[in-house]
Amino acid sequence: MKSQAVVFSSPGNIELREVSLRPLSNDDVLIETHWSSISAGTEKMLLDGHLPSMHMTSYPVIPGYETVGKIIESGSDVPSSYLNKYVYVSGSLGYTDVNAAFGGSSQYIVSPLHKVTLLDELSEPMVGIALPLGATAIHAVELAEVNDKKIIVIGQGAVGLLVCEFAKAFGAQTIVATDLYESRLSKSTADLKIDISKTDLCEVLANMEYDVLIDCSGSMKAIEHALKFLKMHGSVVFGGFYERVNLAYEQIFMKELKLICAKQWAMGDLDRVRDFMAKELINFKNIFTHHASAWNNTSSHYETAFSDPSCLKMILSWEK
């Protein structure tokens, strides 16, 4: 079967082109994509050629791990009740003529049933696009053990905003959020919001001390500057994906700081975030700032997602 898909053909080059899907096995489902999204961090690194070199990231490659669609066909071992259900899927390796990292930006997707998340409980299935971001955020917050603690969140992009939401839900005492852009800070639910393009942290935080720093910016410079506000035996949680970790060691050494890496999400986190969505405990649509058609001006949509600071999350519609 053929499908149209977004393909990174070489560093810096994006095209919408036809690809071939592998046949369904007994436990597979065929998903017709309704919406996908663009990851401004991971996918930009992939397009620039900066993701770690492995077979799945070599060009030509289909990006995307934030996809919601409807099951339109299934293998013989899949219960018929799954047909016509909306699901979230974190990509696919179901292509025969192109690599996939992560394979979600395609008109049709072949996936094993166990890799999809049912969205029956959601009144608006499109909100399921935020599942991986929410799961990334909830995992970082749990590793930070934020209950009754004072925390600093660096970066108020999509993940950073959700980290603040979950930190509050999980009992953080005080949340300070920093960013370079007022438009992002205006969406934050943090107790104290600091625009570091205009104000130095030292002017606001002075001699205050915090228990945990959660980074959602990817900036070593921003992390290093904020270390001085952590207390003895404080923690740093790396909530993004980094080419290199490069920090001055003195403050880490003198304060005996704990460095924690949050690897994507843990088992069960997608289902837990879906429950938050179903109960509308968090406004996930707060991060959906841009909407466009997947069928037109594909490259420009990716450019906007990668370079426009007001674009927290670009939603691409695959409905013609």
Task: Kindly describe this structure.
This protein has 320 residues and is α/β, with parallel strands linked by helices. The protein contains nine helices and 17 strands. Strands 3, 5, 6, 8, 9, 16 and 17 form a seven-stranded mixed β-sheet that branches. Strand 13, helix 6 and strand 14 (230-238) form a beta-alpha-beta unit. The two termini are 19 Å apart.
In a nutshell, what does this entry contain?
It is built from 9 helices and 17 strands. It is α/β, with parallel strands linked by helices.
Could you list some keywords that capture this structure?
single chain, 320 residues, alpha/beta, Quinone Oxidoreductase, Chain A, domain 1, Rossmann fold, seven-stranded mixed β-sheet, 9 helices, 29% strand, globular
Rg over CA atoms: 20 Å
CATH fold node name of the largest domain: Quinone Oxidoreductase, Chain A, domain 1
Give the helix/strand class.
alpha/beta
Instruction: Count helical runs.
Output: 9
Low-confidence stretches: none
CATH class placement of the largest domain: Alpha Beta
Strand content: 25-35%
- Can you name the CATH architecture of the largest domain? Alpha-Beta Complex
N- to C-terminal distance: 19 Å
CATH superfamily of the largest domain: Medium-chain alcohol dehydrogenases, catalytic domain
Tally the structural domains: 2
Largest sheet: 7 strands, mixed
The geometry reads as globular
Please provide the ordered H/E string of secondary-structure elements.
EEEHEEEEEEHEHEHEHEHEHEHEHE
Helix residue percentage: 10-25%
Mean pLDDT: 95
